[in-house]
Amino acid sequence: MANSFKKYSYKLLPWAFPLILLVVWQISSTLGLIPNTILPAPLDVVVSGYTLTLSGELTEHISISLWRALTGFIIGGTIGFILGLLNGLFRLSDLLFDTSIQMVRNIPHLALIPLVILWFGIDETAKIFLVALGVLFPVYINTYHGIKNVDKKLIEMGKAYGLKGFSLFKSVIFPGALSSILVGIRFSLGVMWLTLIVAETISAHTGIGFMAMNAREFMQMEVIVLSILLYALFGKLSDVIARYCERKWLKWNA
Amino acid sequence: MDDEYVKINHLKKSYGELDVLNGINLNIKKGEFVAVVGKSGCGKSTLLRLIAGLEPYDDGQLIIGNKSLKGLNKNARMMFQDGRLLPWKKVIENIGLGLKGDWKKQAYEALVKVGLEDKKDEWPAKLSGGQQQRVALARALVHQPTLMLLDEPLGALDALTRIEMQQLIETIWQEHQITSILVTHDVEEAVNMADRVILIENGKIALNKTIELTRPRKRTSQAFSNYVEEIMNHILGKDQPMKQTNKLRLVKSN
Description:
heterodimer; A: 254 residues; mainly alpha; MetI-like fold; 2 domains; 82% helix; B: 254 residues; alpha/beta; 6-stranded mixed sheet; 4-stranded antiparallel sheet; 8 helices; 37% helix
């Protein structure tokens, strides 16, 4: 009994602080300590979320945002992963591309927004391009370093035991680089949301970011706060998924 | 002369300015167990790595089974001091590394030989140092090598485990008659296990001593200690001080 209580309390403890914060916030709003024009009460946010869900508006915004995020993530992540693999594995490709990639990496990708708008207008391509660009570099760097840092002694052992080419990659190099690759993916998930928020806030007709900007024009404080909370929720959710994958694939490391 | 399996003539290897091996001559018979001893950095491990084909030699001849060695020595299997098991593969998968076809059965049989069949589904990190080296031994055996290269595989083990492992390796060697070369810094281990002990000094063979003791050998016997003492004196250069005292006596008598 005591043990299972401990287990549950450990699971719930991380949520205690956000919960207390919510309660204090609600009480302060009800007592009029925080004016509604500065910050709406949590319950008002919940109510607006409920109304928007009923009208189908919220689902539409969320699904379009998720679609942009995932498409950009998959495109950028794949390119970053492949470039990281090539440059990590092959000296020629490393010499050819790494310097250029490092140069491009140092440009804040959000600085490209004006250029991207001129290139692609303000439709989907622009947002997906920005997300993909932001995601590409963390995945690239961590894949590259993961492969470069695989224990040379293990590679030598693999070769001495008859592994070469793809079998060496599959049994030794990839598993050795995997924990670093997953760090890159977790980091890039953060970049993915950040980029999407900025892109949707600046130029969009749909999506969570648009919902927030649109609400600003009508002074719908609770909708703005709702959008911000949604981003926090999705950020946490993607991190949970990434951690789950880490635990599953790096079981040997536990 | 046909039963010489390894023939080494004037073998040379240097790293930059440093001559590590400076003309090694050594023949090893089929099924013979040879131990190579010497101070740290004398080149004994380098010799083993050259025979394994992990590094190219600079000059001389290295003939394995009537063929000059080029590239990796495919009939040899190496045991390293640091186990070098793949941490992301279960014990049985580590042993099956590089095997084709019905690898699980072969790997299990090898695991039985080293007495660890109940650990087949463990992660290597869960095993003790001695158990890890048993797995490494099984991994080497499963390929049915004609040449076993042992690079201080017991150097990191505690004294009791080391004696156990020595017995295990000796038993397996007697059973399969695999030509074996053991590199070690432990002279007692060398005398206990080998048919012949080679001492390398300044990149050359300084002593080539056949151990004429019946197996199983008794560490406590006088003959055993005599061998150990003789080799130790060579390593520590004890012959020189003796000569000096003789000279002193001569001076005095004058």
